Amino acid sequence: MAKELWKGNEAIAEAAIKAGCKYFFGYPITPQNEIPEYMALKLPQEGGCFLQAESEVAAINMVYGAAGAGARVMTSSSSPGISLKQEGISYIAGAELPCVIVNIVRGGPGLGSIQPAQSDYFQATKGGGHGDYRMIVLAPASVQEAVDLVQEAFDIADQYRNPVMVMGDGMIGQMMEPVEFVEIPKRQLPEKDWATTGLRGRKEHNVINSLYIEASQCDKHNEDLFAKYAKMEETEIRCEEYNLEGAEIVFAAYGTVARIVKNAIKSLEKEGIKAGLIRPITLWPFPKANFLKAADMPNVKAFLSVEMSMGQMVEDVELSVKGKKPVYFYGKAGGAIPTPKAIVEEAKKILGGAK
Fold it and tell me: Per CATH, which fold does 240-353 belong to?
């Protein structure tokens, strides 16, 4: 199949349909509006249902209902909209329901800007809603990768009965790139015998719930959830390692920022400075072992986390390297984008002062 030029948001929507998504509930917000627009046009043609809810709060609770019935369901939004969905996301995680949530991130806090950002990292990876819960968070660096990860996200959600977030900065949603819709290998998935679809030969109805009145019951439920999260950490971590051999400085970056960093690495090499990159593709589970391994490399003098935020992922990098090497941060916020030139200058400044 030949590659076609697609806008990121529309490609994400098409990928979801190809993955078997039958229900979409959402509410407009820039810069992700092309996702619901595409779904409104195409999903009914595929026998699915598109519904623009009256609010983001309503949309995520509609997702809860469809997921509870065993349907493949998705919602999408941008940063302030995802904030409004947080209570519902916590409920969905607590009820162990599979769904896909797409966040095309814009600048904040508050209404912020409509420009691309990465400042939702804490919200996505640390649990923006209440309670102890986790989502697998996938961070594509290109439209093609977004297409592939969205399709796989539905299988991941079904496998673990858990919400999965695909988080891209605004550039991912708005840029146009060549895309090939290849079939992603399917996982062996369990039957949805827990879904609320009537008795179907059972003696009792299934009940979807996240309420546990007794402290001991809620404690046991959390322990069971974290046993599931531990399995995710064992099997779902993924990242890209780039040019690490002989690197004096190792960059940490994800999404489109990682592509900018690769250009900075090429510029540094022209000046005789060897640099590498670790790009987390799963923001959670975070690839701690990859960073710790790099910290043990004798040639590595320092790490530099480059982000479109005021510094969020840098904390996970610091925790991962366990103090073995210094960790620095460089970022731009509110929709401003780091340039290769600025990243090069920051790296040179660090290497000039690093021991």
Answer: Rossmann fold (3.40.50)
